[in-house]
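Q: Could you fold this chain for me?
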Amino acid sequence: MESTHLLGGSKKRVKIHPHTVTAKYATHTPYTPQPGVHTHFPQPGDDGYDDAPSFEEFGSFLEETSDRKRLTESKRWPMTLFGSKDKETSHKLQATGGGEASDRGAKAAKGSGKGVGDQLASFGEASVSASRLTWVGLLGAALAHGCLIVLTRIASERFSLGPLFLLLVRSMVQLLSVAVPLHRGENPFGPEGYRLRLLCYGIAYSLSLCCAYSSLTFVSPGNGTTTWRLATTALSATLAFLLLEEKLGLVDGITISAGLCGLGLVLLPTADESNSDSPTDPVAFWKGAFGWSLSALAGLWMALALVGYRSLKERVGVGTALFTVSWTGCLLAPASLALLQEGWSWPMSASAWGLVLGVVACSAAAFLGMTHALTRLHPALVSASQSLEVPVAMLLYLAVLPLVPTAPEVVGNVMVVLSVGWLVAMKLLPSRGGGRRQREEYEEILDSPIK
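A: Sure. Below is the predicted structure, expressed as structure tokens.
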């Protein structure tokens, strides 16, 4: 980059290099760079400008050769299950290195005009594809959560399996997820310097599950789940703003508020409960109040867990997070069983064991979809999309045991479905104005002589 200023009768020419800055004054003759000093870079219109490396190539070069990457790779856990990953990486680089170099050279030879369109198109397609996969995983997690609610209710009513026992079994089976970080050559307890934060995340998530499953002993599964999801969504939006300084857009805030109103309608008491003239049993009242408090507390712990993983998303993989939640659940679930004095129950039939395995599979699928989405989306958006579990659970339970829902339940579930559907549509539908502005800004940067 070169700049010329008139200072009296002399000219000042400044040559800027990534490592050196050279400034010399000349009265009549122009400045000529000294031999061996790299002070010239091709500018638009010069020969060889198209052969200059682009920003994308320079960024990838820095990423591949940076000290930060070498330090993180050198600190990988040496233990692996299926061989060394360094050999596989070097083999892949050798196999694809020539093809990538030829592709870069071809893109550079095409010129800046056509390359901008191709790069923007490929970037847009990749972004939309990743967003679609993320939202498909989130909706699948909501369906798995709905199935999990129904299976837990059936296990409690027909097979006398306590919710905390199901939580203990699923935590023990999900300990097998330790194979994922071991296969990748990572420490299953997290990278050095982040283990305490990962431990706090696992404890918060397991405490949330323990409180949520314990509340099912005192309140109905539908009310407990709805309260848990409502508290999680509202508190995750607040905690993400306070702890991570992540804000919600206006449209997202309105959509989430509509979903929360729908959940509030589902929680409205029925006519029989509100107009009951019989005296209230103090024991039943305090048991219900304790159950509602446990559901709200579960929402608080879950919001902390979502925000905690959001801050660790670049350091901790999904497999490591699942293993952390599993082993902390194996410690906290028996403690909750002893504290609440819940009787120990054991499946005595093949159908009961099949139900338990179904609970384990649904919980793992829901966790994977929700945790993967946290790497790209706001915690409140992730929790709001999981509100779809409430209408899904209602429909599935009506298919198993036909019951007539009340009008507030129907209206509330419809509002939840519409809010989640509108949220997904707003995130996935293309914006023409945004794409045009993005292309104009990109072309303006490329055409600028200051690079």
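A (continued): The CA atoms of residues 283 and 314 lie 48 Å apart.
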